[in-house]
Amino acid sequence: MTEIAKGLEGVLFTESKLTFIDGAQGILTHLGIPIQEWAENSTFEELSFALLHAKLPSAAELAKFDAELRANREIPAELIKEISSFPPAANPMQMLRTAISALGLYDAQSEDTSEAARYAISVRLIAQFSTVSAAIARVHNRQDIVAPRADLTHAANFLYMLSGKEPSAEQAKLFDIALVLHADHGMNASTFTAIATSSTLSDMYSCVVSAIGALKGPLHGGANEAVMDMLDEVGTPDKAADYITKKLDNKEKIMGVGHRVYKNFDPRSRVLRDYAEHVANKEGKSNYYQILETIEKIVVDRMGSRGIYPNVDFYSGTVYSDLGISKEFFTTIFALARVSGWCASVIEYTRDNRLLRPDAVYTGATDQHYVELKDRQ
């Protein structure tokens, strides 16, 4: 008998120096450094460099990389016109997928699959994902597109392009932390999809567009939006206990709870919970945070012994909401962060590339013969 690993769970197909996860202990590290330390001490720009190069940058290297990102924020005028023509009611992830695919048309290196070209394209993609994502949100909200500014950090620039107003230092830091927490997470579905595409020696834009398609699915990138739907359904904190108890009694899925890898607290959720609590207390204990507090306590009491805890999506939606980001854009924000991990993983894998070609156990009919159409019942 051949054992089938449903969902490829536990299957090892490559090696990586970028990200380590111990789901049983609730540990996530990049280059061996705990995610909590990245969130507290680093920036999205520095983590992006570290993932692409598999090392921490020197001060000079980081300054050069940051300057390259700032210099590459502008997107072609033709693409701005194309994004402006998108139907405002379209799904933002559909818009993002189309825009990034079109972006490759304007890149003279797009068909170059050398490591040097993949790296140069990665820098441009990381920089321009922010501009494209903000433009999509503006079009979706029937607002004029706001051009990027080179004098702002990556996180602050995105919030500026999104709202047209320069964010506070605290808002920019909070968003930067959210980007750091989502930048990479091992061989998740979208990263694996990017690698599968790259293994055919396809171009970098095709790899990233493939990843966007995988991230769009609600089982991967859309969970934080579903958490916000749940909070709106609950309504007020006093209804949270009854709501979640009934859900658990009926064995219904709780969005933002449980994880394919983590059988302990997702370390990213612990970081976001602290910031969500900080924002809630600053604003007078928001309803959303009170509801989540109640849900988390009951879920952990009833399901923690089975390894089911809140994941990163549980609190990320409230953080984005506090930054003025509407829930329909949460998954595009996820992509805005994860593009660093996608690009870094593609570059790493293609250094020792092998075409991915899994197999399946055949369970269909055997010993059959073709029947002429006129003789079929």
UniProtKB/TrEMBL annotation:
Pathway(s) the chain acts in: Carbohydrate metabolism; tricarboxylic acid cycle
What does UniProt list as catalytic?
H259, D313
Q: Which InterPro entries is this protein grouped with?
A: 2-MeCitrate/Citrate_synth_II, Citrate_synth-like_lrg_a-sub, Citrate_synth-like_sm_a-sub, Citrate_synthase, Citrate_synthase_AS, Citrate_synthase_bac-typ, Citrate_synthase_sf
What GO molecular functions are on record for this protein? citrate synthase activity
First and last residue of the signal peptide: none
Q: Which domain of life is it from?
A: Bacteria
Q: Which GO terms describe its cellular component?
A: cytosol
The question of whether Transferase is a record keyword is answered with yes
Q: What keywords were assigned to this record?
A: Transferase, Tricarboxylic acid cycle
Q: Name one GO biological process term.
A: tricarboxylic acid cycle
Catalytic activity as recorded in UniProt: oxaloacetate + acetyl-CoA + H2O = citrate + CoA + H(+)
NCBIfam families, alphabetically? cit_synth_II (TIGR01800)
* Family from the record: Belongs to the citrate synthase family.
Q: What is this protein called?
A: Citrate synthase
